[in-house]
Design brief:
- The complex is a heterotrimer of chains A (about 80), B (about 210) and C (about 375).
- Chain A contains four helices and no strands.
- With about 80 residues, chain A is mainly α.
- The relative contact order of chain A is 0.19.
- The longest helix of chain B is centred in the last third of the chain and has 17 residues.
- Chain B is α+β, with helices and mostly antiparallel strands and about 210 residues long.
- Chain C is α/β, with parallel strands linked by helices.
- In chain C, helix 6 packs across helix 11 and helix 8 packs across helix 9.
- Classes of the chains: A mainly alpha (about 80), B alpha+beta (about 210), C alpha/beta (about 375).
- At the B-C interface, helix 3, helix 4, helix 5, strand 5 and helix 6 of B face helix 5, strand 6, helix 6, helix 7 and strand 10 of C.
């Protein structure tokens, strides 16, 4: 799980052009949207693309996005649950 | 009366303001490198900058230098501040990038962050967001900077009282070259904003950046 | 202040060729949108409005037997609509006081696709190049002006044209706009998850996104009153200054554009009889519009969206929808908002649900788009034919 979280952090930084951020700068439980990293609606769409591109996972219902993308941890959990 | 408060010119790795050289980089440096260096040197803290495409970055940086921490909304109403800009290549660089993501049918993942930047008015939009300009805005596409038309149009907006202050100029980037020429025009005393001044200022900058 | 009039117009869309064919179908509630299966546009089927290519190729070839291969599809559409409108509404093309304004978001973008690249010179993908080719085709002297301001381009172009006539440099301005369906655009909007898989539902509680469309339209503006009975009173363009793809949550940007148009028109808000809205059927756009109309004091004014008939035709939208607004005025007949059934925006704006006869003298047309841009324009009958 830790390895997946580290990978995810790197992928998120790259996909969202989070310049000058290192994986260690992101707390796995920190809220990605709202006050946390302050990501916006386009970032949310990019994360959906990231899941599909890097993990082959398609989100059936976009409304689940809020829970799935809450934090890096919830993303990792979701990936693992879909990969079983 | 409408006067020119300030102007800048950014091309060939040289950035000048009111005809004075502010930045002068080696010609061999990529624009990506140059833009990043200037961004950091300006001390701007605007994380969304890094999501922008090259055209928007060019417009953003040029406007940062033009306005230099001046907050126009303290003097003029947001809806009376605008930006009128000419451009030639539209968003050709990002268009190519977006198209490339469609050419590989096996790995077909078009990016929304790329797609949104395939419109040239996102460049002006980013400037409006940054500086809270809610007034008249337009992006005109022409082969070269058509000073006469841009002047006539902008001046009409000013004398019709649709704008009290505006940025006017030319912002363009394609695979080979980039150029930004911006003037800040305001409803106050100063060097009059007229067609000759616009033309001459632009021409002088073009010469300055060719010579050095 | 110089006055500006609409001399003539023409359009081509999924509903057909020309004003008569299009209005007949609009008034009859017929949509031109369908499921597009051709994979050249997108790997999966999607709902959109397409021009009848076969019919267009034949008509264009009949009109211009030898030149088809010299012009791209995008250029052919513009040449066609301009030619058709000039047939009925001629102007002095060679005059120094004639100008061509082109409105488009992506023009010849289909030329970037792998299989198209080699057929054309690289600069053909630039909008200024297409504009130059078209203005040369008609023998117009002045350099063509191109507006590329996302979805507001069409309304903005008419606004800019009207301003340039008032400015005094031009007597007649051809304002033409077009955008074609392309994988570039379809795939882009799909990545935004903003396309509905069925007919779009503007302002509706169950709206799920927009339908794309392709079209071309032209409006000829003139300073000569005797040529027309529709006047362009005023226009306004603004920016939300909020987000590059998400509209303002307050609607103040669009409100400023509307206010600017009303102020320039020297009319009162109550004078507006009907609003042709943008109504793309996305969650945020329709909601934003409702707030803007309320801010402007227009919540009781009948408003419709035509996106259910033509889809969202991007750079052509402002042109063809303005033409429809003018037809609405001429016929004193409001066209129902196809796809709208249950009110789905927080402000109780007055959405036209069924066709309705009403004396209409003054119309407001609005548009909003990516980049936070908004445009508003006001048309009025010069002689009231109620």
């Amino acid at each position: 799980m830790d390895k997946l979280i580290q990978e995810l952090k790197k992928e998120i930084i790259e996909a969202l052009n989070l310049e000058d951020m290192e994986p260690d700068d992101i707390d796995a439980d920190e809220a990605l949207f709202g006050d946390g990293l302050g990501l916006d609606s386009i970032d949310a769409l990019e994360l959906i693309v990231l899941l599909e591109k890097n993990y082959g996972i398609k989100i059936e219902n976009p409304k689940d996005g809020k829970t799935i993308f809450h934090s890096v941890k919830t993303m990792a959990n979701y990936i693992q649950s879909r990969q079983k | 009366m409408y006067s020119i408060s300030k102007h800048i010119f950014f091309s060939k790795n040289k950035l000048l303001s009111n005809f004075e050289m502010l930045y002068n980089f080696e010609n061999s440096l990529t624009f990506a490198n140059v833009f990043k260096t200037i961004y950091k040197d300006l001390g701007v803290r605007y994380p969304k900058y890094f999501k922008m495409d090259a055209l928007s970055k060019l417009g953003f940086l040029s406007t940062e230098v033009l306005l230099q921490n001046r907050s126009l909304t303290e003097i003029y109403k947001s809806e009376k501040i605008g930006i009128i800009v000419a451009n030639s290549a539209s968003t050709y660089i990002m268009d190519s990038k977006h198209q490339a993501s469609l050419d590989d049918k096996e790995s077909y993942f078009p990016s929304p962050a790329n797609f949104v930047y395939t419109l040239p008015n996102i460049m002006t939009g980013e400037i409006c967001i940054r500086h809270k300009f809610k007034g008249e805005n337009a992006v005109f596409i022409s082969e070269e900077f058509d000073t006469e038309f841009i002047y006539k149009y902008t001046n009409k907006l000013l004398i019709d009282n649709k704008l009290d202050a505006t940025i006017v100029g030319y912002v363009n980037i394609d695979n080979d070259d980039y150029e930004a020429f911006l003037m800040l025009v305001e409803n106050k005393e100063g060097e009059i904003f007229d067609l000759n001044t616009l033309k001459e200022t632009y021409t002088k900058y073009k010469l300055l950046t060719w010579i050095n | 202040m110089k006055r500006v009039f609409v001399h003539g117009s023409y359009l081509i869309s999924s509903l057909g060729f020309g004003i008569k064919e299009n209005s007949t179908k609009l008034f009859a509630g017929k949509s031109g949108s369908e499921l597009i299966l051709d994979k050249k546009y997108y790997p999966k089927a999607f709902f959109a409005s397409k021009i009848d290519n076969k019919r267009f190729n034949k008509v264009f070839k009949d009109l211009f037997p030898d030149i088809k291969n010299s012009y791209t599809f995008f250029e052919q559409l513009l040449i066609f609509v301009i030619q058709q409108s000039l047939k009925k509404y001629p102007i002095d093309l060679k005059s120094e006081e004639t100008l061509l304004i082109i409105s488009s978001t992506k023009g010849n973008i289909d030329l970037l696709a792998k299989n198209e690249k080699s057929k054309w010179k690289e600069n053909r993908v630039f909008l200024w190049k297409s504009a130059q080719i078209i203005k040369d085709f008609f023998g117009i002297q002045n350099k063509a002006i191109v507006i590329s301001n996302a979805c507001i381009s069409g309304v903005e172009a008419i606004g800019i044209g009207s301003r340039m006539i008032r400015e005094g440099s031009y007597k007649n301005i051809i304002v033409a706009g077009a955008d074609i369906l392309s994988e570039f655009v379809v795939a882009g909007f799909q990545s935004f998850q903003s396309l509905s898989s069925k007919l779009c539902r503007p302002y509706d509680a169950n709206r799920t996104g927009l339908n794309l469309g392709e079209a071309a339209g032209v409006v000829i503006l003139t300073s000569e009153e005797k040529k027309s009975d529709i006047e362009v009173l005023g226009s306004g363009i603004s920016n939300d200054a909020n987000h590059i793809s998400g509209p303002s949550r307050t609607g103040d940007g669009l409100y400023f554009a509307i206010k600017s148009a009303i102020d320039e028109s020297s009319i009162k808000v109550e004078d507006i009889d009907f609003i042709s809205g943008h109504g793309t059927a996305t969650n945020y756009n329709d909601e934003m519009e409702s707030k803007a109309f309320q801010l402007a004091g227009l919540e009781n004014t009948p408003i419709n969206s035509l996106k259910g008939y033509w889809g969202h035709t991007l750079g052509a939208a402002g042109l063809i929808e303005s033409i429809a607004a003018i037809e609405t005025m001429k016929n004193n007949l409001l066209i129902k908002t196809l796809g709208y059934d249950k009110h789905g925006v927080s402000i109780p704006i007055n959405i036209v649900k069924d066709n309705q006869s009403l004396p209409i003298k003054t119309v407001l047309k609005t548009a909003s788009g990516f980049g936070g841009a908004n445009a508003a324009i006001i048309f009025q009958k010069t002689k009231n034919n109620v």
